[in-house]
Specification:
The chain has three helices and nine strands; from the N terminus they run ββββββββααβα. It is α+β, with helices and mostly antiparallel strands. The two termini are 14 Å apart.
């Protein structure tokens, strides 16, 4: 199995790659461990589960020290380890404060749609109800993880592209995650 963290963030067509960690409907948060090259159960989340596929953009390094978080909006069903070729459509800007800490950390979420979906409908707008659903989901699951999550606002496609450029540059400056085996 490849180390998903170190995949290039873009495919040969220039689309983003998103690695699914927890698929839509999952009531557990799975997290990819690059050392073991496995998906591990991190914790249980709300009984309603993830509203869409949750994962990360490989080849990126966000401010929290992990790859850029992403959620793929689509109606299909996937599983951990699926790589979705996608396009960024929005950026949910948020900060988190862990219980017992005073300092908040930025931990934005990239919202993407599969490139295959765009082939059927070239324009995808994030409906207001979907935005509210995502905000509520991240606030609620943050509370379950003993974090206070504050929604700072929404960014557009350009903000999403800037987040990818910034985090992929940070990844390139840091280098791959694994040492020679």
């Amino acid at each position: 199995m490849p180390n998903f963290i170190d995949l290039d963030c873009r495919d040969d067509k220039g689309n983003l790659r998103m690695v699914v960690e927890a698929p839509k409907g999952s009531v557990v948060k799975l997290k990819y461990d690059p050392q073991l090259e496995t998906f591990e159960l991190q914790r249980f989340i709300s009984s309603t589960g993830y509203p869409y596929d949750w994962g990360f953009i490989p080849g990126t390094l966000a401010a929290d020290g992990d790859p850029l978080d992403a959620m793929a909006i689509h109606d299909g069903h996937t599983w951990p380890g699926v790589v979705i070729s996608c396009v960024g459509i929005a950026l949910l800007k948020l900060t988190e404060v862990k219980e017992g800490e005073k300092e908040s950390k930025r931990n934005d979420r990239l919202v993407v749609v599969p490139a295959a979906r765009l082939a059927q409908a070239p324009r995808v707008d994030l409906e207001p109800a979907t935005r509210v659903r995502l905000e509520q989901f991240f606030v609620e699951t943050g509370a379950l993880a003993k974090k206070r999550v504050s929604i700072e606002g929404w960014g557009n496609e350009a903000d999403a592209a800037d987040a990818v450029a910034r985090t992929s540059q940070a990844y390139r400056e840091r280098g791959p995650t694994l040492v020679d085996k």
